[in-house]
Write a structure and sequence with these properties.
36% of the residues lie in helices and 21% in strands. It has two domains: 286 residues, Aminopeptidase, CATH 3.40.630.10; 128 residues, Alpha-Beta Plaits (2-Layer Sandwich). A six-stranded mixed beta sheet has the order 1-2-6-3-7-17, with helices on both faces. Strands 11-13-9-14 form a four-stranded antiparallel beta sheet, with helices on one face. A three-stranded antiparallel beta sheet has the order 4-5-18. By secondary structure, it is an alpha+beta fold. It contains eleven helices and 18 strands.
């Protein structure tokens, strides 16, 4: 087996040029959420070339019912197909799912030195929207499997290559694939973790707080109730809640992260003109929570802070703010460090790269939570770096780390799925 692994490491390196080409082709096909079709069909063609049994379909809203807390932000998924390619094994081995999302965030209008869809290379960096998050992971998945096939390796277990949509809007694509029956004995999500191995993924959910006041002319403020002023009380309370969460909520795999579990107010909307007392303000925010907590625990915490703040104010006692959970929810999930799949991936990280991996919690929400909780698949998040460039202008990925990710995946496939002699 060690000889096959060494050959596979060399083959992945030999395929570096093809990996770079595929990543550039993916970036050249813009795939903002709702517009993933062209990039997905390109990836489906790659999987067909590998000899996979390829399934392409558009998710349906009812597919998400397997997650009772799913928060929909659209009611149909045209132009957002999921893609799964199954490479059948010879039998007798464990199956492995390689999951990645094709959707990317919008590029923004400024600060890009070149087109966000150029995929241009400077030294060891490949630039473009989605380069790190996470088209590099999709390219690494493909090259890992192709490199083994190039060597004539026949795996015993099935390999599932999964490219999903809508991760950026709550994970509808992965939930649809689980609902469709795609499961495995282990899974890797190669998000840009900076080559850290993450058997733990935090949960992330969005919320909205609507604060009502009473409209009046600014010359007669005594006749109105200023919703902005009342919202200010809630902003201060949520800010205090955030400080308390950061200080008190801990997890052994998040010691490296200064603020893993937190609440952030990101949008404030309210008022019409300066000469009117505003009668409505809407606060929108994001809350992250530990895999040791349920989403119900997280919701209860915020709702209690809003209720207690309102109860201390005469107006808000009679006109309580409304809390809604909307638009985005990725559940948390974790796999025990002693699980055979975690051990297999860590062993092959050391085999491929000659050093032990850093094992930490994922610094962001991922589809791993759904794979763990609703697919019942032991899932590890592990992928290239750096982890600091996603969503920024001039997003880039380190090409050496993409090659190394593919090498670790190739070796893991050999051990986990088994090789036909």
């Amino acid at each position: 087996m060690e000889n096959i692994k060494q050959r596979s490491l060399k083959q992945v390196e030999k395929n570096r040029g093809e990996l770079t080409k595929i990543l550039r082709e993916l970036i050249a096909r813009p795939s903002i959420s709702g517009e993933e079709k062209e990039a997905q069909l390109y990836y489906a063609g790659l999987l067909e070339d590998l000899g996979c049994q390829v399934d392409v379909w558009e998710p349906k809203p009812e597919d998400m019912l397997i997650n009772p807390n799913f928060l929909a932000n659209r009611d149909q998924y045209s132009d957002s197909p999921d893609v799964v390619g199954v490479l059948k094994g010879s039998g007798g081995g464990q199956s492995l799912l390689l999951n990645g999302h094709m959707d990317v965030v919008p590029p923004g209008a400024i600060d890009w030195l070149q087109s966000p869809w150029s995929g241009h290379v400077e030294g060891n960096r490949l630039y473009g929207r989605g380069a790190a998050d996470m088209k590099a992971g999709l390219a690494a998945n493909y090259i890992a499997v192709k490199s083994l096939l190039d060597l004539g390796v026949r795996l015993k277990g099935d390999v599932l290559l999964e490219s999903v949509v809508c991760e950026k809007t709550g994970g509808a694509g992965t939930l649809s694939a689980i609902h469709r029956g795609y499961r495995a004995d282990g899974a890797v999500v190669p998000e840009p973790t900076g080559m850290q191995v993450c058997p733990v993924s935090m949960g992330v959910i969005w919320f909205k707080i609507t604060v009502t006041g009473k409209a009046a002319h600014a010359a007669t403020t005594h006749l109105g109730v200023n919703a902005i002023t009342k919202a200010g009380l809630l902003i201060a309370a949520v800010d205090q809640m955030n400080r308390q969460m950061v200080a008190e909520k801990k997890h052994p795999l998040y010691g490296y992260h200064p603020t893993p579990f937190s609440v952030n107010l990101g949008v404030v909307t309210g008022g019409a003109i300066p000469t009117s007392v505003p009668d409505k303000v809407v606060l929108e925010g994001r809350m992250s929570f530990s895999p040791d907590e349920t989403v119900a625990d997280a919701k209860k915490l915020l709702e209690a802070v809003v209720h207690e703040t309102a109860a201390a104010d005469e107006w808000m006692r009679e006109h309580p703010p409304e809390v809604e959970w909307f638009g985005f929810f990725l559940d948390s999930g974790s796999v025990d460090l002693s699980h055979p799949f975690v051990k297999t991936l860590c062993h092959n990280y050391e085999t491929a790269l000659g050093r032990a991996p850093q094992v930490v919690g994922s610094p962001f929400g991922t589809d791993a939570g759904s794979l763990i909780r609703y697919g019942h698949i032991p899932t590890v998040i592990f992928g290239p770096g750096p982890s600091s460039t996603p969503h920024k202008a001039n997003e880039y990925v380190d090409l050496d780390s993409v090659v190394q990710t593919a090498q670790v995946l190739a070796c893991t496939l050999l051990d986990w799925c088994g090789v036909e002699e």
